[in-house]
Sequence to fold (301 residues):
Amino acid sequence: MPKIILITGATDGIGRETARRLSADGHHLLLHGRSVPKLAATAEELRNRYGAKSVETYQADFSALDQVARLGLILREKHHCIDVLINNAGVFKTVHAAASDGVDLRFVVNAFAPALLAQLLLPILPADGRVVNLSSAAQASVEFAAPGAKRRLKAMDAYAQSKLALTMWSQAFAKERPNGPVSVAVNPGSLLATKMVRKGFGVAGNDIGIGADILVQAALSDEFADATGRYFDNDVGAFTSPHPDAADPSKVGRVVGMVEDRIAEYLREPLHACLRPADTAVTRDAFEESGRAGFYGALAS
Ligand SMILES: NC(=O)c1ccc[n+]([C@@H]2O[C@H](COP(=O)([O-])OP(=O)(O)OC[C@H]3O[C@@H](n4cnc5c(N)ncnc54)[C@H](OP(=O)(O)O)[C@@H]3O)[C@@H](O)[C@H]2O)c1
Fold:
């Protein structure tokens, strides 16, 4: 049966490859990206080459949490149910290491944004729904001063810390919700052939399909139906233990607390108060399909 699946960072790399596979299988795809032209090109490719019948596009820059919040609200307005959220958007090397509020960009995009989006979509994620959080083999102890520190972390340190933060958060999110939705962290495989790897490591990388296949399985297969709170390492092809810090309740508590503190202001009601209409976050076609006007229509114009 076709599912409604939201993929963040669907305009390139593993996210786009996953979207291709899911389109070919007839699922209704909600594609997120930060670039409107790349979103349009991806949607067109899915329709023309992969037979996608049903694709929506949503634009938001995840380095700005208010854009993530707006995206979550708009998705809630438009959809009563999203079966699967694949939290795939991620960043490693970047020209600017700090987001607009001075916080390390890797933490914002790789950890805070996916946590915020999942929290906002919780009302429309069914009990048997899934949240797939993209982890990595690169995981490192989180330095608590790191996200907002004046001393900038090296790219790999920031990346690995942000990935452990998301992995811990994924566990904690699951623990609080034993009846679902499933929350699972997945390392899609190391050094897969994407621009992140080409730019970050200067190598062509391994078959990107390795990553897309495991994300499709995490999203839909029975093997992952009881996997809530777990970590799947596709380098070894099995559920394993993440970084040892993820087994230390006090460290988990501190890291998850940090994530929750960072996103709290965007979860407060009324949510609209934190959203400035000047920042447009969603492309027009999603609204035109919905036929909605009013507050969200104004944002889209
Ligand atoms: N490739 C690997 O070997 C590997 C290994 C372990 C984990 N991962 C994880 O897998 C996920 C996908 O990575 P990838 O290798 O496919 O990298 P990629 O090709 O660079 O794709 C990353 C995606 O995230 C989007 N993105 C980046 N910054 C964003 C922002 N500020 N706001 C919104 N979207 C943003 C990108 O948008 P644009 O298209 O506009 O650039 C792109 O769609 C990441 O979470 C990564 O950490 C990858």
Summary: The pocket of NAP is lined by residues 9, 11-15, 33-35, 38, 61-63, 88-91, 109, 134, 136, 187-188, 190-192, 194-197 (CB under 6 Å).
